[in-house]
Amino acid sequence: MRKSTLAIAALAALGGLNMGNQGCTPTPAGPASRILKMDTTVGVVKAEKVTLPSGEVVDFPYVVNALFYGEVINSDHMTIAAALPNVAPSAVSANAVTTSSDSPQVKVLKHYRLVSGEYISELPMKNAHGMTAQSLSALTGSPVDLKCTYETPEFSIGGDVIDFTASAGGGLDIGFGKTPGQMGNVGVDYSQTKLDLRLRLDRPLTQLPLEIGDGKSYQKTISAHLGYGQIGLNFFFKSAVSDAIRSAMDSAISDIVTKFTANRNADWNQDWESRVAYLPQVDGDTHIAIRSGAQNGVKLDDTFNISNLNYQWADSSAPCKSRLVSSIPDDPSTPTAQAVVEYVDDNYSVLRVTKYAGNGKIRVGARVTLNSFAVAPTPTPAPTK
């Protein structure tokens, strides 16, 4: 299923691609049974500690955040962001020029390192294009300087538990602000739970909130037994109380997704986005790497639109070290390029560029949006007798 990235680069270097400068008209992705997931950083869900009738004070925030992590992982629309792999071949010098004995892969890698500006401080005073390091950096932007544009997840999510109560009657209720009486040696049975939760979805680079999602869970007929001498964490993780917490979380995440799509294109796949990343052995011209892979729902032969972005920072002299103000496409009406997936790893993919619109080379941090999913092969009909 997976194809070697270096082999892809070598083929591109030797044979080139059949790419025109045709316009890259976006094709609406439309609803689909497959849902792409956006990279998300899991923040903190704030909560209060809870006192049990045994007198034990339980770290309820720990319980909530452990369960929350699992709910985000299992979400249909978000996945936990992972770091891109460090896959730079150690045998290739950062500022070496190509030689006749270099393999095609090494030639591609050296050339890309030169023009990308990743090792701008190590370049000689002038490179093969006759440009100084300073002018080259100004032209291309250094992937090192702009790491945040492709390493930072699209979302961060966190929030607050506003209220929690588990009811048993007889003065043994537990929850926020409650001090229950002492239970007997037969334990306590809890028959009702109530949890009120609010989650917030943010854009990490802009440091601004996107959506607020509310989740409420009120279960009137549960059976949760707190045994005499039972450890409090086990009670929360292994009883029906954990179901109430998960239910509220799922409701809040669903509320966020509904609001997010309603305020945009009304379809998650059309709103989904990723970024063009920097991987040393991908040439950045005929092939690009994106920070989305199998865990995001990307599959071989999916087609994506690529749009270069102009990033504006609160401090223009400190990109990635100051807040992102805006990211405007070079051409809002036409993507810079289209590309098809040729390799899928867990959290990144390599795409072959199939069309350029003629409005510039693809830059690190370019926006990636869905054009179309791979077409499933038509089943061969069974032979008739």
Structure explained in plain terms:
- This protein has 385 residues and is of the alpha+beta class.
- The chain folds into two domains: 5-36 and 83-152 and 272-372, Thrombin, subunit H (Beta Barrel); 38-81 and 153-262, Rossmann fold, CATH 3.40.50.
- The chain is 22% helix and 28% strand.
- The protein has eight helices and 18 strands.
- Strands 1, 4, 5, 6, 8 and 9 form a six-stranded mixed beta sheet that branches.
- Strand 5 (155-167) and strand 6 form a beta hairpin.
- Helix 1 (5-15) crosses helix 3 (104-116) and helix 2 (60-73) crosses helix 7.
- The longest helix is centred in the middle third of the chain and has 23 residues, at 240-262.
- It is elongated, with a radius of gyration of 26 Å.
- The two termini are 35 Å apart.
- Mean pLDDT is 77; it is low at 1-22, 86-100 and 102-141.
Q: Note the total helix count.
A: 8
Spans of at least 5 consecutive residues whose pLDDT stays below 50 are 1-22, 86-100, 102-141
| CATH fold label of the largest domain | Thrombin, subunit H
Amino- and carboxy-terminal Cα gap:
35 Å
Q: How large is the radius of gyration?
A: 26 Å
Going by helix content, strand content and strand pairing, the class is: alpha+beta
Oligomer: single chain
Give the percentage of residues in beta strands. 25-35%
Number of beta strands: 18
Helix content: 10-25%
Mean pLDDT: 77
Overall tally of domains: 2
Task: Name the CATH architecture of the largest domain.
Answer: Beta Barrel
Shape: elongated
- Give a short account of the largest sheet: 6 strands, mixed
CATH top level of the largest domain is Mainly Beta
